[in-house]
Amino acid sequence: MSESAARTVVIVGAGPKGIGVLERLCAGAPELLGDRNLVVHLIDPFPPGPGRVWRHDQSPLLLMNSKAADVTMFTDDSVRCEGPPRPGPTLAEWVEQVRDGTLDVEIDPGLRAELDRATPATFHTRRMQSAYLSWCYRRILDTRPESVEVRVHGTEAVDLTESGADQLVWLRDEPWPLRADAVVLTVGHLDGETDESGSALADFARRHGRTYFPPGYTADTDLSPIVPGEPVLVRGFGLAFIDLLTLLTEGRGGSYATAADGTLVYRPSGAEPILYVGSRRGVPYRPKPGYGLLGAAAELPRFFGPSEIAALAARPGPIRFRTDLWPLIAKELGWGYYTELFTAHPERVTMEFAEFAECYREFDWDSEQLRTLVAKSVPAAEDRFDPEELDRPLAAASAADAPALAALVREHIVRVLDRGGDGAFSADLGAVTAMLSVFRQLPTAVATGKLDPESQLFDVDGWWFGFFSYIGSGPPRARLEELLALERAGILAFLGPEMWVDTDEERGLFLGGSRKVPGAVTATTLVDARLPPPDVTRTTNPIVRALHDRGRLGAERLVGESSVLSTGRIHTSGIDGQLFDSGGVAHPRRFALGPHTSLRIAGAFSRPRTNALGFRENDSVACQVLRLTGES
Questions:
Q1: Where is the signal peptide (predicted)?
Q2: 83-106 burial, b if ≥16 CB within 10 A, otherwise e?
Q3: Whole-number Å distance between alpha carbons of 52 and 225
């Protein structure tokens, strides 16, 4: 292929998002470029397909938090996109086809046992997902048009400049840049420098010979400074904590066994530290349930969809989350919950669903009429949908001391496991299904430009995303069963909700506890077990930082009637992905996609047959790039 005659695109980041854009470029090229040649450069120091997060070179103990049947890299006919869909196997289908020999795929021998026992409901290891993503990348290469050439550069992109219309991508340790007609940044979650609070904690640790781990990707964190038996404070009870817990227990030689009475038992290796964990909620993310929906499919969206959002946008004044969006969202979640409860478990209610639904449609969410309807038709309090109690299950809890509070955390985990394993409570999954619908609609509300800045930053980006992750993006059930086993073994202790952290200068120790009870524990190490928030001003990603420092990549700013707030996200035009500079001017040849951009897409794999936003985003950007390069 002649380099001078070819159109050229650079994709910075060759993980799942990057190869997703590549797939859409290959799908759309025949129609939008004809027989004109296209060269696509993939820039990533990690393997194309898996990228950094899903690379094979990580602990075999780390799991996905999605079932195999819920993970796909391929578009289907549910996706409303301009480019042609290119169906392919879900992770579950791929595993089955590899296992029965339909697909001739060379598998790491270490994955064979996992492959043999897998079902569509399996939470696979990240190494298995790495194998799937590697195969997806090879399939993209094997099925690409002859006019498309892909070149891989196993290094970092450190800067992006331009000369006229030419985009110049500079690579680490390379003297000459890559010339491109368009550049797409698919850089994923942004690593970042610590903020002022984290810097103060790190300074305290340095002065006293202690250890502080700021927010970061757990699988890439060197945990060797944590020594056996050391008391460690852990702030955070989400997925980063689950990874941390696994690496510091099983990852250090411990093992699990089942006792004669069926209780899970942890057998320490002696290399484990002692972990004291807490958070604002004080409880872990809710695990994925062990059942599917059993009743009629809920009509979604029903109360929070395009027409409702359009009606809010047409009103004068800003839209506020708590007063305008939340009543509709909560009603939508309740609709999903009660649809499943009434149609799957009629023995637990006192009226027909049609009668309930007619009244439910008419009443506002936070109204006495709706409360009366639910009380009349759903006799058991445990069968009623209460998002406030769901969000803060221990908010009203009281305890005399730390052991009593820890017992409340333990009891909560047991209840959650029981509900998640009992199909009688499948209405919980109905609420999660509605939550996924809400998540797909929220970008439309954000795109109106009328959402109040405080509501968007603190309520949507803050509370809602946290609530969604807590309810809908939790770990496999087995992880919570292991959590209880570790507590019984004395390896872990629950601090409870409203966790606080402080430092003791005199003793040189970290302090931590719960505002619910008096007293504190002391520790020589503190771990903030979470990913860094989006912040282009603090990112350590070289190309993003370089562009931002020169004003060529802007931090998203929310402008309201009386305030302007920065979200720290890469400022883009939303689903179209065009990159804005610090002055708010869109660059016609630069694009950015991913969880830390303005689109606010979940950092998760797309589910099949859901018209997934991630696929539509990939397609939108790819089609723009193809038209742009076709005109060059």
A1: none
A2: bebbebbbbbbbbbebbeeeeebe
A3: 23
- Identical topology for domains 7-191+588-631 and 196-285+475-528: yes
Neighbours of 221 (CB within 10 A): 16
Structure tokens at 57: 């070179």
- Output the CATH code of domain 196-285+475-528: 3.50.50.60
- Taking only the tens place, the pLDDT of each residue in 215-257 is 999 999 999 999 999 999 999 999 999 999 999 999 999 999 9
Residue 286 is given by DSSP the state P
Q: How far apart are the first and last CA of the chain?
A: 17
DSSP 8-state symbol, 398: -
Identify the CA nearest to 232 among candidates 250, 245, 221. 245
> Domain spanning 7-191+588-631: which CATH class is it, in words?
alpha beta
Per the CB < 8 A criterion, the answer to whether 298 and 339 are in contact is: yes
Residue 251 has φ and ψ, to the nearest 5°, of -65, -15
Domain residue ranges of the chain, discontinuous segments joined by +? 7-191+588-631, 196-285+475-528, 306-472
Which structure tokens are listed for 174?
Answer: 């390379």
| Cβ burial, residue 374 (10 Å; 0-12/13-18/19+) | buried
Pick from 558, 318, 313: which is nearest to 448 by CA? 313
Task: Single out the residue of 528, 316, 299, 525 nearest to residue 430, CA to CA.
Answer: 299
The pTM of this model reads 0.95
Cross-sheet strand order for the sheet of 499-504: 499-504, 509-514, 521-523
The amino acid at 321? F
Three-state SS string over 326-393 comes to HHHHHHHHHHHHHHHHHHHCHHHCCCCHHHHHHHHHHCCCCCHHHHHHHHHHCCCHHHCCCHHHHHCC
Taking a C-beta distance cutoff of 8 angstroms, is the pair 517, 404 a contact? Answer: yes
120: its two tokens: 């569509």
Q: Phi/psi at 179 (nearest 5 deg)? A: -90, 140
pLDDT digits (tens, 9 = 90+) for 383-442: 999 999 999 999 999 999 999 999 999 999 999 999 999 999 999 999 999 999 999 899
